[in-house]
Amino acid sequence: MESLGVVGAALLVAIESLFPPIPSELILPLAGFTASRGSFDLVSVIIATTIGSVVGAVVLYYIGYWIGVERLMRVADRIPLMSSGDVQKAMAWFHRHGPVAVFTGRFIPIVRSLISIPAGVDRMRLWLFCCSPQSAVASGTLSSSFSASRSARTGPWSKPSPRNTAKLYSQSRSSP
Question: Which of 46, 52, 139, 158 could form a disulfide with 13 if both were Cys (CB 3.0 to 4.6 A apart)?
Answer without folding.
Answer: 52
